[in-house]
Amino acid sequence: MLYIIGLGLSTIEDITISGLNTIQECDYVFVDAYTSILSHGIERISAFCGKDVKRADREFTEQDSLIISLARSENVAFLVVGDPLCATTHTDLIIRAIKERIPYKVIHNSSIMTSVACCGLQLYRMGETVSIPLWTDCGCPDSFYPKIVSNFFRGLHTLCLLDIKIREKSLDNLLYDRDIYEPPRFMLCSEAAYQILEAGRRIHQRFVDASADPGVEMPCEPEPECYLHPDCLAVCLARVGSPTQAMLVTTIGILAASLSAGDSNNLSNVLGGPLHSMIIPGKLHPMEIEFLCARLLIGDGKEDLGTASNGTSLPVLLPPAMAGCGFRERVKSMFDRHQELLPTKF
Amino acid sequence: MLYIIGLGLSTIEDITISGLNTIQECDYVFVDAYTSILSHGIERISAFCGKDVKRADREFTEQDSLIISLARSENVAFLVVGDPLCATTHTDLIIRAIKERIPYKVIHNSSIMTSVACCGLQLYRMGETVSIPLWTDCGCPDSFYPKIVSNFFRGLHTLCLLDIKIREKSLDNLLYDRDIYEPPRFMLCSEAAYQILEAGRRIHQRFVDASADPGVEMPCEPEPECYLHPDCLAVCLARVGSPTQAMLVTTIGILAASLSAGDSNNLSNVLGGPLHSMIIPGKLHPMEIEFLCARLLIGDGKEDLGTASNGTSLPVLLPPAMAGCGFRERVKSMFDRHQELLPTKF
């Protein structure tokens, strides 16, 4: 029997009772160590479960058939950070089990795809989710861009899942089949915002180039409103579900600019390190705005501090600078500007 | 301090270790008994947690301020089936806590919004989620319909959350302020399918009526392809995450027809009672089709049985009847027909 067990978002204590009970009955326990990470290492998982938990990297899970062959006669647990079915990665493992007539059971848990609602944006208003890949020398794929734009211009929010690279090999090491791995890399919100604006510029440039070449038959250039403006809001989330969870409401432009400003800026102090996710909101309901601006409800003049006076981590607001304007006025103007950018039918 | 704790989908064993630990530290424990239900009663939650868990109905949570006033000085847990933030219902409670400067913490858990991936459809391909309300004498709202159509014609899947009514009062009892509640009602997939097709007919009829009235200025009638065809696929899910989880892949037309056929039909035997959810798929990736048809992978001639020979509950396939055609041929034809109904650009 194969058990595919969600671990939730932050620490091993986020596992469910039924998940933990199931592990106790298993002969072998593997943990997916390549699609995401908990805030601590595999040793703590082993100690907590009282089992010798083995690391399963991508090659082991996807190419080696040990997990499947063990599950023919033994109880095997495969642990996955978040909910096991939110990424498509593990579908393949389940289909292999089915083909071998090995019974399987999924034990669900919380996922970043729903926990992002902690910022107050409603999941009902989410359009298609996108993954933003880290751009490298090998390529700068921008297929996420039209999806964000399509959601935005239908008034829907877009959850952007940001790339992580764990135990990846460099091109050189791949070619020479050397088992040397790059240091882990985790995309931050500022990088994602830069890539979003840059993707828009590149797509626009491709149309300009094609229109200058009479030999090329091209589609019409998209309308100007088919590009995201730097004044669009971006809701940044860091380490959702963990004790150090942080949230920031600002604009795509401010985020992207912070990337060139380096690490010393205010913004990276607010969000801190990985894991980051980002939401590009569409049309905002008044209650969503109230929640995003929850810090203003407390009204103690400490709206720009990282932690509210009551100890709860509310979203930090970082509106664009406006000469002679107070903090609340700048926040209001940031939200008004976002709503202006949406099509008038909303 | 106010703790808002997700219970997961099925039984109290689906709570997380961190959720259970938090309850132990609380002076008061309430459970939301109006937005969803576990597969067992509140007594089992109390016994499992070793606490006197109190039922919180809608009036108590939304109008009575006892939860908030207790949380000023005590540790209060508010338990919610699924993930606490997936419905918008509990946002109001959090905003009230923030306004009163009461610190709060959310402990996430699995939600129907992600667990539906158990059928093999990818969450990345989901468009906007819709809620389908039970139609009553008081009204037949159909605003869910254009959202499903909009997703479908963009090639995206639509998760349809089906209405449940727990502890609702009849209009009479509301008017006379009598504390008499109607029996609980849970929408089934067959009812949802009927309402989807009927909503399409009603919206069409409104256009026809308006065009016959020269005094009315009306928008153009939507194109024929703006209506969902009864041959569209519907993926039905029952009691997701529970030991009796069941799945069915068929068409909207077959589902709707089963409603008039009464309870004795094959279909309600397959799915069983509440809670039901439904997905109207958009464009299907080959791996999604492989997963939906997992029963065919086993290929032991038992493809039409409720439980596969390996004990795992795989989706049951119920294709339309076709004279002289074998089961596999009918399934293939059902999927081909669905893809045909999508715009040609896919």
Automatic annotation (TrEMBL), chains A, B:
EC number(s) on file: 2.1.1.314
* Segments forming a coiled coil: none
Record has Cytoplasm as a keyword: no
Q: What one GO molecular function would you report for this record?
A: diphthine methyl ester synthase activity
Pathway annotation from the record? Protein modification; peptidyl-diphthamide biosynthesis
Q: Which reaction does it catalyse?
A: 2-[(3S)-amino-3-carboxypropyl]-L-histidyl-[translation elongation factor 2] + 4 S-adenosyl-L-methionine = diphthine methyl ester-[translation elongation factor 2] + 4 S-adenosyl-L-homocysteine + 3 H(+)
**Pfam families annotated for this entry?**
TP_methylase
Q: Name one GO biological process term.
A: methylation
Concerning its family, UniProt says: Belongs to the diphthine synthase family.
Q: What is this protein called?
A: diphthine methyl ester synthase
Q: Which organism is it from?
A: Taenia asiatica (Asian tapeworm)
